[in-house]
Amino acid sequence: MNFSKRIIPLSLAALCTCAGLSWGADAPAVPLPFGPAISAFGPAGTGFPVGKLGVLLNYQYCETDGIRKGGSEVNENVRLTKNVGVVKFRYGITEGLDVRTATPIYDVYKKNLVTGRGEHLGWIGDTAIALHKVLMNQAKGSPFDLAVDVGLVVPTTDVSSKSVDFVGNGAWGTGGAVGLTYSTGSHRLDQEVHVYTFTEGSHDYRKPMYVRSTTAWGYAVNNNFDLGAESQFDWNDQSEKNGKNQKDSKNEWYAGPKVAFKYKPGGFAAGLAAMFPMARWYEANTPSEGFRVELKLSKTFDLL
């Protein structure tokens, strides 16, 4: 991938993001930024307002830039074009405790550049449900916000010959997360790490245990716009097929810029983030994404 040619147009395309939908009653002394823009199910450190429902949509578009093994490109025989949506709901149960869900809906176009043949894969994946508990609150005198998640993945996927096992194959999963948020002035820093493991599902396939670390920095230019940058590192263990390790572990690190638009009176935010590969390593021949562009939309509703 020619990094310099891709980063300029995609950075210009990065527009708006949102997270942590808590609209205060009083205007803040300084504008406040929101949390991570990219699609991450981890908690960061903040909570969710009691009695409010958040509806969020993450959309990710990406294209692979070749087949890679280890840290090098092997060939360009296969190209994947991915359109992945994640529908999320959040509801504040009590102060410092909320419930969150995330359901992926996806379409992957796989094209063999040698034969010219292509096919579409996907539809719906398995749903993750998590309880999110705030342990420390910076607004109440703590040095930072700290929260944990306890989660469960339930089999909601539509398993077929067109489904992608890595996204969902009707398996159960469990995991947890810890998140930290630190705010000062118009700056906000988020760090979250979560880990999940899975049972064997359809097609005699067991998804790999994975660890994801997401880091985000945001700066509120004013009450409506943010600037910032984000980083995401994924570690995936080997998957299993028919009880045998597939020797397909991988590590991926992507990072890039973001900007945000927020409309506080309507409880609405929208945006994009552009992510580029910083480091990639694959145990087996694997199609690897040359870039990711992510859109995030959110709206809060007051149910009380």
Automatic annotation (TrEMBL):
Superkingdom per UniProt: Bacteria
Signal peptide residues on this chain, from the entry's feature table: 1-24
Give yes or no: UniProt keyword Signal: yes
Keywords recorded for this protein, A-Z: Signal
Q: What is this protein called in UniProt?
A: Transporter
Q: Which organism is it from?
A: Geomonas subterranea
Query: What lineage does the source organism belong to?
Result: Bacteria, Pseudomonadati, Thermodesulfobacteriota, Desulfuromonadia, Geobacterales
